[in-house]
Amino acid sequence: MSSGVVSRVINHDTTLRISEATRERVLQAISDLDYAPNVAAQTLRSARSGLIAVILNDVTNPVYAEIMRGAQAASAKHERALLVFDSATGGHSAGRLAAMIGGGGLDALIIQAAGAVSDTVLARAASRKIPTILLQAELGIDAHLISLPDKEAAEIATDHLIDHGHRMIGCLATARGMLFTKNRFRGWRAAMKRAGLKADQGAVAYAGSDMDVGADACTRLLTRRPDLTALVCFNVIDALGALAAISKTGRRIPDDISLVAVNDLPFAGVLSTPLTTVAMPLYDMGERAIELACGDVLEIGESIVDSTPPRLIRRQSVGRVA
Amino acid sequence: MSSGVVSRVINHDTTLRISEATRERVLQAISDLDYAPNVAAQTLRSARSGLIAVILNDVTNPVYAEIMRGAQAASAKHERALLVFDSATGGHSAGRLAAMIGGGGLDALIIQAAGAVSDTVLARAASRKIPTILLQAELGIDAHLISLPDKEAAEIATDHLIDHGHRMIGCLATARGMLFTKNRFRGWRAAMKRAGLKADQGAVAYAGSDMDVGADACTRLLTRRPDLTALVCFNVIDALGALAAISKTGRRIPDDISLVAVNDLPFAGVLSTPLTTVAMPLYDMGERAIELACGDVLEIGESIVDSTPPRLIRRQSVGRVA
DNA sequence: CTGTTAGCGCCTTCAG
DNA sequence: CTGAAGGCGCTAACAG
Questions:
Q1: B104 and B11 in a common domain
Q2: By CB neighbour count within 10 A (0-12 exposed, 13-18 middle, 19+ buried), where does B82 fall?
């Protein structure tokens, strides 16, 4: 009996006809020796590593963490392993990542970290024809783009505020120019327009995905526009900052100012003011990304995760306006 | 010029004597072709993949996320890549993980997920002599164990409460029998004893790393022991649950009951009651784990991350007792 | 129906 | 000082 037979038994080669006894013997030996095929050799031979890289901005952000949960579940189901890179701490050089992409060590690339991926890495992925999936970010490259129902979410948030009598509704937006920022703006504007309200640029401030940045932006916005009675926060982490910033000025939520954030948080209910949010299918987005990464044919294009529609979760950060 | 020369140029073989012109030519070609060595072949030949697996209980837990940040930073520095497995979503079978361990695809294994790693995986890692690093959990295997200054942290928390006049101080502990639970108990008992206070088992409840579980445990503990005026939460996620549970019963924090949690949270300041915590060197622990994983000699043994001592962060969940 | 062989791409040893 | 060759472990094709 030779190694070839063993290989075919392991890989369930249906064309292989051997006696049940022999197959039994092979299986027995495998189990006796606790044999497992060498993955490097398999990769070398097949040019498929079973590895998918995920590049995140910040592993610490609960929104991304939820995406990761979905990705983890799906990758387990598809028998893939996830290589996680954190662009914030990992540095932009990304030596190991570039080496793995160049060296054929990756089957696919999922990019959450908008601007943080070096062009070298992107160029290599493209030239090696590694399927690339972009999460919520246009990068002007040949890649699949997965989006969330951003417009709808912002619309739901804004509508909820309007339903409570608010007319001066501002936006605490994420970085200017990002795709999902644009789409959430569209939702805000649509809702405002429908209600005959003015959605002017003066009522928006740009923040980031960072509590402190969110707090600063919120403070600046509210001092510039003291007439605002409500804020739609495009980024729930910024909303956390807003919570802090607003209470520091002595204003009360929701009495003086109402808040709705896009994306829910597990601990949204135990915040200084329990935060009303619009939950988005983050988990599903992670799953979808893996499924696309595993699909043999990756039709380049856009897709929106619409398995679960955005859902308003009422808590206590929205009040009725006098 | 042959492939051997190229290999030696890339790997900075100092014994190689070639004309500067030739070296230049090689480098030029590498850059022209955007050449990168095949990682699978390198792995096959060298039996080193540059990959370290990290097994987490829950990627969504901010405490583990902070450990991951440290691990990410260190792995970038050491030119390693991190394979992240989530035992909660990934399932316990862990097919891909077992395959990679058995097939020599991993250089090291870092285990955060206490009980969630199958014995098969553990046995394989041991038999393949893959350096294994345990985070805060004894598993009775040949592996390095990294701990946090758990006893000190619990002691600091308890002392702080005692300083505020509390005498009936309970514990919201994590799962019974876990190493760090035991150590935090030691800290609590030491502080209580030093103050001449009674640290009886009746004042402790066991929770988990889950808000709802923490909330339930807290409710049960406080109805059983209404005399308690303060709680040391061994797990900050349980503390979040406690926040919710306590306010639901109409009691006030800190007026009726004070809370200190071990491990800080980025958003601890914007909670319904800003939470007083004892910050631990989680980031450093992640770094240390990677450094051990990369060390050629892994002296099996215990070590405590003491780069930064536990630090009390006063917020508003602790009040003075009448 | 089973065993042998070649080659995936690299790096190291040895011969030239 | 440089080129050739073998083998890491696997699997697909082919020979027996």
A1: no
A2: buried
The CATH number given to whatever domain includes residue A233 is 3.40.50.2300
Query: Are residues B123 and B65 both part of a single domain?
Result: yes
What's the CA gap between B30 and A121, in Å, rounded?
16
Nucleotide nearest to B10 (CA to C1'): C11
**Same domain? A155 vs A143:** no
SS3 content of chain A, % helix, strand, coil (to 5): 45, 15, 40
Domain identity same for A20 and A67: no
User: What mean pLDDT is predicted for residues A68-89?
Assistant: 92
Same domain, residue pair A204 and A109: no
User: In whole angstroms, how far apart are CA A59 and each of A41, A88, A142, B293, B298?
Assistant: 32, 9, 26, 20, 27
Per the structure, the count of domains in chain B is: 3
| DSSP, residue by residue, B56-80 | ES-TT-HHHHHHHHHHHHHHHHTT-
Q: How far apart are CA A136 and CA A133, in angstroms?
A: 10
Rounded to whole angstroms, the distance from the CA of residue A5 to the C1' of nucleotide D14 is 14
């691990």: which residue's tokens? Answer: B71
pLDDT digits (tens, 9 = 90+) for A205-250: 999 899 999 999 999 999 999 999 999 999 999 999 999 999 999 8
Q: In terms of residue numbers, what domain contains A288? A: 44-148+283-304
* Four-residue CA torsion sign, B243, B248, B251, B252: positive
Q: Tell me: do A56 and A103 sit in the same domain.
A: yes
Residues of chain B with pLDDT under 70: 1-2, 11, 14, 16-17, 19, 90-93, 296-298
Residues A141 and A161 in one domain: no
> What pLDDT, on the 0 to 100 scale, is given for residue A152?
96
In a domain, A314, yes or no: no
**Bridge-partner residues for B110, per DSSP?**
B54, B133
State residue B121's pLDDT score: 85
Q: Give strand letter and number of the nucleotide nearest B2 (CA to C1').
A: D3
State whether A73 and B79 contact (CB < 8 Å).
Answer: no
**Statement: residue A297 has pLDDT above 80:** no
Cβ <8 Å between A72 and B59 = yes
Query: Is residue A319 assigned to a domain?
Result: no
Euclidean distance between CA atoms B319 and B246, whole angstroms = 15
Q: Are residues A22 and A127 in the same domain?
A: no
Of A45 and A9, which is predicted with more confidence?
A: A45
Whether B315 is covered by a domain: the verdict is no
pLDDT, tens digit (0-9, with 9 covering 90-100), for A172-195: 999 888 889 999 999 999 999 999
Rg (Cα) of chain B, in Å, rounded? 25
Q: How many CA atoms lie within 13 A of A127 on its CB side?
A: 14
Q: Is residue B309 part of a domain?
A: no
In a 13 Å sphere around the CA of A305, the CA atoms on its Cβ side amount to 28
- B40 chain-A contacts, CB cut-off 8 A: 40-41, 43-44, 49, 103-105
The alpha-carbon gap from B4 to the nearest alpha carbon of chain A, in Å, equals: 17
With both helix axes pointing from N to C terminus, report the angle between B119-127 and B95-102 in degrees, rounded to the nearest 10. 10
